[in-house]
Every structure is written in C-alpha cells, then in structure tokens.
Amino acid sequence: MSGTVTPERLWPQLEAWLAGDPSRPIFAVYHEGDWSGSDVLMVGDRYVDVRVCRSELAVREVLSAPREAGRGLVLLTSIDQLGADVLARLARPRVHRLHSSDALLPLFGVRAIDPALARQRWLIDALVDSAPRAGYESAGALQLDLARAWRALLVHRYGIDPDGGLGGLLAWAASPGTAFVEAEAAERKALTARLVGTMPGAEAVLAVLDAGDGDDVVALGLVMRVLLNAPDGAARVAARTRLEVRLKGWAFDAGSAAAWSLAAEATLDALPSHLQATVQHRADRLIEILQAESLVAASDHLTSGLRARMAAFGGTLAAWTAGKRSIAAVAADADRIAQHRLADSLPDAPHRLALALARWLDLDAASPPDLRAAALLHATDGSYADWARSTLRNGAGEPTFDAAVRKLVAKADARRESEEEHFAQTLASWSAHSTTDDALLGVEHILERVVGPLAVARPLLFIVMDGMGHRVANELLDDLSHAGWTELRRTAHSERALAVSVLPSVTAVSRTSLLTGSLRRGTMSDEQAAFPTHTALVSASAGGEPPRLFHKGAITDRHGGLTAELSAEVAGDRRVVGAVINAIDDHLARSEQLRTSWGARDILPLWWLLEAAREAGRIVVLASDHGHVLEHGSTLNRGSGDGGERWQRATGRSLETGEVVVQGTRVLVPEGACVLAWSEKVRYAVKKNGYHGGASAQEVLTPLLVLAPGLVDTPDGWSEAPYDPPAWWLGDPASDVVAPGTGVPDAPPAEPRPGEQMTLAPDGPPADVSATGWITELLASDVFAERRASAGRTPVPDERTIRILAALDAHGGQLLKDALARACGIPVMRLTGMLAALRQMLNIDGYQTLTVDPATGDVKLDRVLLAQQFGLSGP
C-alpha cells in the first residue's frame, strides 16, 4: 500500500518539499503500477512535471531533456537504487517511499498523529485519498486525534454532516454517493460501527441502505412510528417481522426505531408540501406492503393514519347516536383526530363540528316562553347548530365518518325542526301585537336606536348584508374576532342584539323598512331617497355632509376592489356611509352543489369595506334585513300560487304541515295576514340553493353586529363584548347546561371561604372559589410584585389575572383560547395581548409556566411549576 502513489498523496509531500525552494526541484518517488494523475501538477505557484520511468535509462533520458529553470519534476520509478550521478541531480539524493501518514500531517497542519488513529491504516489511506486540494480544516492542534479524523472523513469522503444528527443522516441516505456504495466491506463495517456508536438510530438507517431502500428511508421512518405505537398484538408482530425481512435481517430495536421515527417526522415537516405528499404516499404504500393497515391509526403523520382515525370516530359517533357509547368516547376520538398533524388541513374541521353537534344533542331541548327568549336561544344556540349541520353535509370523504355524520345531522335536523315549529307558533302569537323594545328591535328601529347614536360618537360605516342570518353572522364573527375586530354591545343589553324582520321576511319589505326606518314596502330607489334624510342619521351628521348609501354597482369596480367614489367616502369626513351587499342573497339563487364558507375574506366587497373602515378608524355596524334557509331536500308545495318562495296569501287555503298563519301590523301584505312556511322541508318556488320569506328563526331573526377596528375607547353606553359561543360549541360541556333564554335563573354566586377574596368585576364570570386561595397567594408574593413592576407600562390588571388563572385552573390547566375568552368574558383580541403580558410576568428564566400554542390555540398553565417559581405553598 505504501508504494502506491496517487495525486492526493503526492501533492502534500510536494508542497512540503518545495516549501524550502530547492535550487533543483527534482524528486524521485518509488512507484509501481500505473499513474492515474496528470503529467503536470500545480503545486502552489509552481508547475511540476510528473514522469513515469520504468528503468534507470528512462530516468536518465528525462533528466537529460531540456527544462525550464525552476520548473519542478517528479520521477516515478520502480527502481529503488539509482546511480550516484543521478542522485546528485535530485533535490534530495534518494528515492522516496511515500507513506499515507506522511501525507496526512501537512493535510491537517499537524506534527503528529494520535496512536489510536495510527493503528487504523485504512482510515489514514482514506483520508489521504479523499483530501480536498487545499487540505482539511485547521483546528490549531499539533496532533491529529481520532475524532477529528473521523469527522473529516465523514464530511469529505461520504458527504455526511456529523452535526446534522440522524435527520442529516436520513437526508444523506436518500442519495449516499458512490464512496459508500463502492467502499470495501471492511470500510463499510468500520463506518457503520462509528455512526452507530455516535448517532442513535444510525444502525436502522444503514440497514435500509444495505437493503437498497435508501429512497424510502424517510417513508420507512414514518412507518416505524406505526410499528412502535400501535397496540401490541399479532398484527404488529407480523408487520415487524415483514420489515426485518425487507431490511435483510435487521433486528427491530425500539430505541433505534424511535430515534429514526423522530428524525423522519422532523424531516417530513421541513419538506415543501408537494414533497411531503410524495413521502406520505410512499409511506402509505409501504404500510400496505407490510400488511399493517389495521395499525396505521397510531401515526400522527400519515394520511392513512388520519383516515383511520376518522373512520374510528365515525364508528364511535354512530354507536353514540344509537345510544351505545358515551359522549366522552366521542370526544376522545375527536381529540385523536385533532392530535394528527394533518388535522388542520381538513376543510371546516368536521371532527370538531361533529363533536359539537353531538354535545348539543346531548343537552336537553328548551321551550322558551316568548319570542324574545326564543330569539335569544336561536342567536346563541340554535344558529350554531345550524352552522354545524349545514357544514357537515359537505362530508369529509371518509365513508365510515360520512355515514355516521349523516345520521347525526338527521338527528339534529329533527331537533331543529321541532325548535322551528315552536318558534313559529311563538312568532304567530307575537305578531298579533308585535311589541318591540330595546331588547327586541324591529329592523326598522336599527337606524334610530343603534346607527344614529353610534354615529354621534364616531364616524360609522353601516353595512347591510342582504339575507344574512345568525348562522352566517356567527361564522363571520368568529373570523373577524381573530382578525383584529372587537365586538361592541350596548352596556344595558350585554346579550347579543336581537332584531326581527318584517313579515314576510323578504327584501321588498324588510330591507326597505330597515333602510328607511319605517314599516313599508319599497324598492332600491325608495331606500336611496330615505336613507340620507333619516332623522337620526342627519342629526348625527351635525350639519356636515348628509348620510350616503351605496347599492350594488356603486360598490365594486369592474377591475377589482371598491369603486374610487366609495373608497373616498369611507376615508373621508362624511359621518355615516352605508353600503348594501347582496352576496348572500345572490348565493341563494345558485346551485345547491356549490360549497360555500362565510369568512370575511370569502365575501370580497365586505372584506374591502372592512379594511377601508379599519384604515379610516370607523366603527362598523353590520346588519341584515332577513335571513334564509338552505335547500336540504325540500318539497314543492304549490299552495295558492300567490306569494313567494316561502310565503303565501292566507285567503282561500287551509294550513298544511310546516306552515303557520301570521297577522298584524308587521305583516306587510294587503290583507295584513299570510301563510308562512316554518319547516325547512317546504318551499313554494323552483328549487334553489336557499330561500327566504318564511317563519323560521333562520329567516325572521336578523343579526346586528357592532365592530370596532382593534382595541379602542368604546363610545358611552357601549362595552367590549366577550367571545361567547355556547359552551358545547367550544368543547366545554360542563358549563352553561341551562340553555339561554329559557327563563331559568342563574344560581346565586358562592360565598368566598374565610381568607379568600373575590375581586372579579360584576360583568365577568366568577372565578372558581377553590382556586382563589393560591391565586391570592400568588398576587401577594414578592416575586410576583417584582415581575409585575418590570412588566412595562401596561401590566395585566389583577382582576383580569384572576379571571384567566381561575378559568384555566377550573379546566385542569388547559383551554382553547376561544374557550378561555368565553370563560373569562374577555374579547379574543384583548385576551391575546393579556396572555402575552401574563407570560412575561409568569415565565421566569425561560421556564414555561404559561404557554400558548399558536398552531392549536391551546393555553396551558403548569401550576406545579408556577408554585416552584413563585415560592407558593403548593399546587
């Protein structure tokens, strides 16, 4: 081995020989065999010729040839004894025998080699053969140790990053290069031993390479998680055995498999989405090859794992619907889906909606005593059930899940049908006198009692979403509460604003009544004429420019965005600007097969208007003239043929199933009475995506949202509203069991125990009394006082700190942010800032006593760690 000369071994020696600048830069090197290098080498700034001389005569011939002064020459010869006259012409009068260790010293810039390295001749040879032209990185050490030598070999010979961990090894294994593939068995064995000894999990990865499956090393790592976490049993044993055979006898090792799985999952997460899909697809195929389909639910990363969890959820949900499983079992399966990393990619989170709808069905149905109570029940409860059941009809593409959801939705449909019948009967009784007040507004009162007074305090944008019911408003509010908008409510009426349409609930009477401020039938022209002259709006304008209303073509520019005129008005000084958006009403006339969501960005004119209002600092009042019902297998009832989609004239016909008669001053038909459909199963017109004009709560009740751009000083008489969906919607079935609007009084607040304090504001929920003791101790601690003092100019008030900590503690230390906002009675946007400030106060030296997961929205409190950090008496 030592007699073999390669350019890599010759270069460092030549650099050392030429460093002395000999006057005769000619060297003889013992050489047998062929020379694979070039005839000319560049060493430093010198050219060095290389000549192979098979005999002494050949040596003499080369030496006798003319040469450029100072040009180097290397004679490669198998003659180890040259004549004295020849030796006299050499820079060093001898034939050199090159040794790898000699070449290694200058390559690393060291003077000696660690004995442990010296004993591994193959490693030295490999380092010399693999050396970069400029040598290895200098470390300043005088001796080359084994660890540094291995590191250099891994990087430069094999392309392995020693600092990349097992994840780096996975990336390398997918394309290991020819050095590994062509290495002799002894070298591969040594390399394997080194990697296994320094990198847990490397043995499994190298086994994949030996089996020729390097392209699948990440996919197999994902499969490994299944074989680790799946329940023990014959199926798992068989799948592991098949894997061992595939990897040519690699013995399954849990520790190595776990490390491999973690690295594979991290590698997958770092890949672009299209490459992730490719790897997941391959992993799913490997699951089939290993016949491990029954185990795949154990994976948090595989698409097949998500499908398996969806199927399991569907089975549990079907059993619950049949009365054979508990709601807790349904919740557990929904949580398993939520834990999968692909769960967020499921459109509309159907597992969460299905669980919420099941929780709603698990509660006792309510029978509100009057229209106001029925309206409040729909706004705060039934409309959320409508959101869930309408969205769940879209399915999720997993047969077992979809079959179970269809049964769930059918059950929810039946309950909502019963509720709508009760609402319609209540509406019929109420319509005879039609008593309205600040707690139950008519749409005709909104300008006078809401828009006008608010416009006195702040410039205002009034947006009418034609056809928007509470179901759509809930979806919009959920989106807007996370997009920097704060809902405001009248301080005297902290519950959701309730408004009722004119009857029948159609645009011609309800929208005209809304925009004119009086009960009347009309057209867009009537609305345009009346809006600028409305007494309350003119008064709010205080002598400035009169209110202005924009309809349809005046709202959006044909090239995109708002018209220049509308944009200028929103940005200008006009106190009241109004706009009518027909997106929802227009949608009802389209195909029922179109999937529609109602986030703010899904309704472009609305989103553009909101952004313009935010920029201008305007308060936004978002209202509607009526709602609608969606087409879900209705039946055409031709009735008298005199009426609309969901209403008929009352003369000359008897009531049928799903109908009710209403009469009174708010019934704007010539006879003052008409027949309204309350059942979703009834329509009087051609089939469309949806209808309006009937007596259901979905059509008659109109949402009214007051939105402020960000956290602002609220106008007098108005307060920030908490984010308050029903408890069952947010996943907290333990609270608010009594449905709102039923007239059942709240339980009196518990008296504080001796030594405990109750400092909550009257508008917020009481903290859990059992938790108040440790919270009191925390607030009184010196450490907390120091942290609070250093928290900046806006520390969280003690009252809010108590609310947040007590709510978390009452729920086992963990809540979704939306659920926490509801439990605390704090708007989501304000809660976000408070949690950031609280984390600054409570998290000391990097210890995370309070955490917020930005991906899932989970807020977690570690009371044990909190007690340790603040020196409290105990958790």
From TrEMBL:
Residues 739-763 are annotated as: Disordered. Residues 771-871 form the Alkaline phosphatase-like protein PglZ C-terminal domain. Residues 13-98 form the Alkaline phosphatase-like protein PglZ N-terminal domain. InterPro entries: Alkaline_phosphatase_core_sf (IPR017850), BREX_PglZ (IPR047992), PglZ_2nd (IPR058881), PglZ_C (IPR058882), PglZ_N (IPR058880). It comes from the Bacteria. Residues 167-300 form the Alkaline phosphatase-like protein PglZ second domain. This is BREX-2 system phosphatase PglZ.
